[in-house]
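# nightly structure sweep
# worker-07 picked up a monomer target from the shared queue
# config: single-sequence mode, recycle default, output format = structure tokens
# input follows
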Amino acid sequence: MRSIFLTLILAIAATAPSRAADSPPADPVLAEATDLAGAVMFMESGAPGMVLAIVRGDHSLVLGYGETKKGNKRKPDGDSLLRLNSITKVFATEVLASLVAEGKLSLTDSLQRYAGDATVPTFGARPITLLDLATHSAALPREMGEAPSDALPRAWPTREDRWKWLPSYKLPWAPGAIAAYSNIGFDLLADAIASAGGQAYPDLLRKHVTAPLDMRDTGFAPTPEQCDRLMIGTGLGGAGPCVNTHATDGSGGLYSTGNDMARWLRHNIQDADGALALSHAVYRQRQALQAAIGFDEAGPMAGLGLGWVIVAGRSIHPTLVAKSGGGVGFMSYIAFAPGRNVGLFVAVNRVDFAMFSRLTDAANALIATLVTR
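# output follows
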């Protein structure tokens, strides 16, 4: 038993994290809570590297573990570039909610209103609304089909591709009746946001979210300098090149860093009124749906906000507002306890779904250690 304990201590010492260079003085409670828990999360992930950002009130801590690329001996930090994958969706819904607050669109608007000359399918008289798209309940598939063999990850389908495909798609059930996870739905949502906002979607994201929060490394078209900081993904699907991912700007194309995500996480925790209150609210209760497909990887989904998954509190675990992402060699997770001023973001450069279930369990448990009321 003593030898096992010594082995664990030595392993933890070998995985001592790097801290973000621009982090403010650490909250000692955050430091204590993440000291062992963060190291264990990383070791159990089996990933080459991990970035962990945790926020408690006005304090945050951004930690890097392992290597940015397997074997390169370069430890990630708060400036290492990451792929957010489907966490991209909850950035899109913040922009959506901002335009609602400005009166430029309504959640009950039909997608047809922003479709130009294209015809959006309906189910009888029931149209697809922006709310349907933002809650995965538009009766659209996860993907519009297999990507061409020469398509780069997160660079397909283009806007032209999806609007050419959409009119021929037959809705299998009425929008609003069933929630089924859909990437293509969020790319169509980003197109509608651009139409309503009168600007390209990346410009609207910059205007409403990333520029006000000084999130300089969050976007869809990394510079060569930013690409040099990109962690290299592993596991199912493998790594992808550092390319412009504007084609999937609503569903999964965002790049970011731990430092930027700590800023955005604090924003969601502390500025939860106005547009964010619209984004975090529950619009689809699970028990009111005929089925809910694809939402339980981080805990049983109780309801859907705008892109966000609401996980009901149980035992010592608080209610969580959460979103996960995976693909192109990365898996990521963000969650916060509304009204408790605690939240967490974690990303690993390895795709493994069994591992990810354990990682999100550990992340939720870490949040629970910091929420005692």
